[in-house]
Amino acid sequence: AKAAGRDTHRFYAEAMNAEAVAHLSTRSGLRRALERGEFLIHYQPQISLETGAVTGAEALLRWNHPDKGMVPPGDFIPIAEDSGLIVPIGAWVLTEACRQAAQWHTQGLSLSVAVNLSALQLQRGDLVATVTRALAESGLDPLLLELELTESMLIQNTDVVMDNLRRIKAMGVQVSIDDFGTGYSNLSYIGRLAVDKLKIDRGFVADLTRNHDSAKITAAVIQMAHSLNLTAVAEGVEDSETLEALRGLHCDVAQGYYLGRPGPAEAVERAARQVNPF
Ligand code: C2E
Ligand code: CA
Ligand code: CA
Ligand code: CA
């Protein structure tokens, strides 16, 4: 039993070591990726449920790894967050997304771009300078930039976080709460922080037409958004039935595979130029 215990111990030690090595190699890989330009952004269109027009796009980070190919963000963003590399990577995303939206604007397309922020970025004193620089370099109208935060990032209402949000709002940048409904249940911050949009988590949207509770929650979030003068966005729309249900609930904006998968900027451009009445 003692030997088995030792073996078990060694097994765990080796497993942990392998994990640590994988982690480390991803960490140095991430640093290299930034230097060598291996990151790219895919854009997913957001559609007005009133007109059917594309109104903007969410920027979703991708890592085009030289050996592994396209690595999804779930595989490397947690490591980028742990190592602090999310700060320079996030600054790159902001710069690139603003540049793209400014380019759309010069092409006659007035599309907003939504960028996901990490907790660490929101906690740092240099966030406003980073956003200011991205806007100045691109010439993008601040009203066309949207920052997506999650509820959990707002419960750490430190002075820095509150100051960052206040200053970002003062610049005219839009703020939305991502994955709404999955996080903190104290809603008082929404009024206090003057956010602009609620993005209903796709967990509720996905089974809207099959699950009565999800339908009720989605309807309630849309109502609450409207009574606070906020825009309601549904993400994870995967079929026409869900789209129709959301239109019936007077949801404002929708996003999901049914309306367009994340892809190169050109795909959003093409969709935006199409007249697409429902
Ligand atoms: P998220 O912000 O909730 O982004 C939406 C995710 O849902 C994206 O996954 C998108 O591809 C996926 N999605 C969109 N429509 C549908 C649909 O109809 N059905 C289903 N099943 N999924 C759909 P993705 O691109 O893998 O991103 C995962 C997460 O990684 C994002 O979740 C976000 O939290 C994070 N992320 C992505 N880019 C960035 C970034 O630049 N910075 C930070 N900090 N996080 C990012
Ligand atoms: Ca998001
Ligand atoms: Ca989301
Ligand atoms: Ca998420």
From TrEMBL:
EAL domain sequence ranges: 23-276
Name under which the protein is recorded: EAL domain-containing protein
Organism encoding this protein: Azospirillum lipoferum
Species classification: Bacteria, Pseudomonadati, Pseudomonadota, Alphaproteobacteria, Rhodospirillales
Part of the intact protein present: 602 to 879 of 883
